[in-house]
Design brief:
The complex is a heterodimer. In chain A, β7 and β8 form a beta hairpin. By secondary structure, chain A is mostly beta strands. Chain A contains no helices and 12 strands. In chain B, the strands form 2 sheets. In chain B, strands 2, 4, 5, 6, 9, 10 and 11 form a 7-stranded mixed β-sheet that branches. In chain B, 0% of the residues lie in helices and 50% in strands. By secondary structure, chain B is mainly beta. Classes of the chains: A mainly beta, B mainly beta.
Chain lengths: 116, 115
């Protein structure tokens, strides 16, 4: 079974600064995907960024980037130029590559607060 | 942008009552899911559904729960004889192809309160 661990329950950052959220995972799978989802106060789950484990290049989406270290089983999220709208709970998630209906396994979440 | 829609957004029910949560997945998606999030806790997988049958279910998804796709658009989660511990946010989700790691899109959730 896969496990995902987010060791930072809460973090805060000043607007316009950079923050990094940590995530580690444990799996015996070689083919899988990793995700960061954002859950603002509205509680909807919104995809932030996605990484394919077989790709060495770190994924980037505008101000969001990841540092994927496959050997260390680490998948951190960097948010640059933080904005007030980035305030949310951030969940790291793992999905193994299967033929059908593969589930997401989530970490405990990190509550990020962006301060003005 | 296409969305997963869920109804109701919030439901309060008496313990022991049956509840049906409804979802309309994105139209060209083939895989459907229900996840649960108890307040303050992580999001947990309940069940996945493909080709009109359950693909996988978690240990949480016991005989109290059932899912169904009664027509070509709706996907429902039924909870029989609700318990206090069933109080949670229930998320419906869908994707085109989980094998390729395609994005799983979530609805806005149905908040269930059992009293």
């Amino acid at each position: 079974a896969q496990t995902v661990t987010q060791s930072q329950p809460e973090m805060s950052v000043q607007e316009a600064e950079t923050v990094t959220l940590s995530c580690t995972y444990d799996t015996s799978e070689s083919n899988y995907y990793l995700f960061w989802y954002k859950q603002p106060p509205s509680r909807q789950m919104i995809l932030v960024i996605r990484q394919e484990a077989y790709k060495q290049q770190n994924a980037t989406e505008n101000r969001f980037s990841v540092n994927f270290q496959k050997a260390a089983k680490s998948f951190s999220l960097k948010i640059s130029d933080s904005q007030l709208g980035d305030t949310a709970m951030y969940f790291c998630a793992f999905m193994k590559r299967e033929t059908s209906g593969s589930r997401l396994t989530f970490g405990e979440g990190t509550q990020l607060t962006v301060n003005p | 942008e296409p969305e997963v829609t869920q109804t109701p957004s919030h439901q309060v029910t008496q313990m022991g009552q049956e509840v049906i949560l409804r979802c309309v997945p994105i139209s060209n998606h083939l895989y459907f899911y229900w996840y649960r999030q108890i307040l303050g806790q992580k999001v947990e997988f309940l069940v996945s559904f493909y080709n009109n049958e359950i693909s996988e279910k978690s240990e949480i998804f016991d005989d109290q729960f059932s899912v169904e796709r009664p027509d070509g658009s709706n996907f429902t989660l039924k909870i029989r004889s609700t318990k206090l511990e069933d109080s949670a946010m229930y998320f419906c989700a869908s994707t085109t192809d989980s094998y390729s790691g395609n994005t799983i899109y979530f609805g806005e959730g149905s908040w269930l309160t059992v009293v």
